[in-house]
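Aim 2, interim progress. The first record below pairs a target sequence with its C-alpha cells.
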Amino acid sequence: MGPLFKQQPKVTAPLRSVQRLSTKKKQDYFWAYLFIFPTLLGTVLFNLGPVLYTVYLSFTEWGAFGNSTWGGLVNYKKILNDPVFVSSLKNTLIFTVLSVPLSIALSTVVAQLLNQQIRGVSVYRTLFFLPVVTMPAAIGIVWRWLYNADFGIINYLLNLFHIKPVGWLIDGNIALYSIIVVAIWGAIGYNMVIILAGLQNISPQFYEAASIDGAGMFTKFFQITVPLLTPTLFFVTIISMINALQTFELIFMMIGPDSLVIRDTQTLVFMFYKEAFINNDKGYGSAISLVLFLMILILTIIQFKWQKKWVHYS
C-alpha cells in the first residue's frame, strides 16, 4: 500500500508564472502612463487649468487698475439685471436658430447634388469647400467690402435694377441677418463634406429596390436618405450649434467694437471679449463665459436625449 497521504505537488512554477505576468502588467502600465503623461500634463495645464481659473475669476470683482477682490455671486446677479446681456443672448439665439437649420438644409441639398456622377464633380466639391480653409478674418473683410453701403458690389447690382442702396452693416435692423447669411455661406462646405461621407455609406441597393417599387426622387430622399442619414445629421447639428453659439470672428471683423450697431449684433462671446479685454472686467467676462458654457452643455444634453428618443420610436 502506498502512503495514506500523498505528497502534494509543488506549485512554485505556476506562482512564478503568475508573478512574472503581474510584473509584466506593471511594466506595461508604467510605460503606458509614461507615454501619455506629456499629453495629460498639457491637458491639465492648458485646458483644465484655465477652466478652473475662469470659474474662480467669475466670483471676483475687478477694479480700474486690475485689482481683484472676492465678490461671491455679484457678477451672476449683475448678469440677471444687465439689459446688454439680455440683448446679446437674444442675438445669439437668433443667430443660432436661423443659421444652423438653414446651413444644414442647404448643405444636405448640395451634398446630394455632388453625390451624383457628373462631370467635374471634384472641382465643384473643392469650390464649395474653399470657405472652410479660408481664414475667418479674410472672409469678414471680403464680405464687409461686398456689403459696403457706398461702393459695395451688392448695392451696385441692386442699383442696376433701380433698387435703393441698403445699409447691410450700418442698419441695426438688418446687420445681424447680413452676418447670418455669411455664416451660412461659410458653413456649407464643412457640413457638405461630412454629409457627403454619410451619403456614400448608404447602399445603392436601397434605391434600386425603391425604384423597382416605383418610388420617385422625393420619396427616395425622405424615406431612404433622411432616415439613414440621421446619425450624420445629428453630428452636424451638434457641431453647427456649438459653433453658432460661439460666433465671434465675423462680428468682430464685419462690425467691430466701435460700430453704432454693435448693440444690435453682438453675441455672448463678443460681449465676453468686450468685458474681459476692453473694459478689463475679467470677473464679469468669466461669468458670461460660464453662463454660455452651461447653455451649450444643456442644449447639447437635450439634443442627445431627443436623438435617443427619436431613434427609439423610429
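The second target in this work package is listed in the same format:
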Amino acid sequence: MKKIKIVYYTGTGCTEMVANCLEKTLRERGIDTDIFKISAGENCDLDYTDILVLLYPIHSFTMPGPVLEWVLGLSDGSGMQAAVITVSGGWEVSPNTASRIRAIKMLKKKGYDVFFEDSIALLSNAAYTTPEPFATMLFKVLPEKVGAAADGILSGARKELPTLFFDRFFAWAGRSVRHGARLWGRGNKVSSECDGCGICAGTCSSGNITMTDSKPVFGKNCCMCLGCFYACPKRALSPKMAKPILLKDYDIKGLEKKALVADRIDVSDIKAGYLWQGVKKYLSS
C-alpha cells in the first residue's frame, strides 16, 4: 500500500481546508496518509513516503516564501513521486498559470518525479471579495474537486496543466514581492483594541510575530499572507501601507456553514467580470 504525505502551507485558512479535505478523501479510499503544515523552524520527515503532495496558496503569481524555504531544505528525493497543487481565488486564469513552475523545477532538481499538478479554487483573501453565489458554491463543490485530484494522484497518470507564456514573466517578477513583504510586515500597527491574546502570533507560520508585554511585535520574516489580520478577533491589526487589500467581510467559517445548507446552482449564466471567469469555469466544469 502506498503512503502519501501531504505537505501544505496556509495563510488565511483556505489551503488548510483543502489539505484536510484531501487527507480525509485519501483515508476514505484506504490510503495511509500523513499531513504536515509548513511552519517556521519545523522539519518534515519523508521517510517511508511513496508520494509527496505539496499544496500551497498562490502568492504574487508564485509560491509563498515559507514554501520556497521548505523545498530548499528538502533532501534528495531519489525518484520519489510528487504532486503539486495550488489554491487561489481566481483559479487558472492569467497570471496564475505559471504559479507551480518554480516549485516543480526545484523538486525535479532535487530528484523528485513530479508527475501530477492541479489547481483548486476557493475564496479570494485580498483586494477583491469573491462574489455570491460563487463563494458558497466553491465550498459546495470542494469535496468533489478534491476527490477528482485524489483519484488523479492515485491513478499514477501524468497530468500537466497548460501555462501561458507571458505568465512566466509574472511568476518571475512575483519573487520580488517576497523581499518587499518583509519590509511591509514590519510596519504593521496594533490598535488599543488589542487584548494581548496572542492569536496572531500563533497563527503566523513565518514566525514573524512575537508577544512582548502582551503586545505583538513584528519582525523581518513576513510573507504577506494576511493570516494575522483575519485571525485577530478584535481586528486590532492593520498594515501601514496597502490597507485596501484587506477584506472587511472575509469569513471562511461562515461561508462554509452556509454551503452545508445551500442548494447546488448552475452558475454558467451568471455574469462575471474577468477576475471571476476562471472561477465560473471551475464551477461549471
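The mean pLDDT is 92. This observation will shape the mutagenesis plan for the next reporting period.
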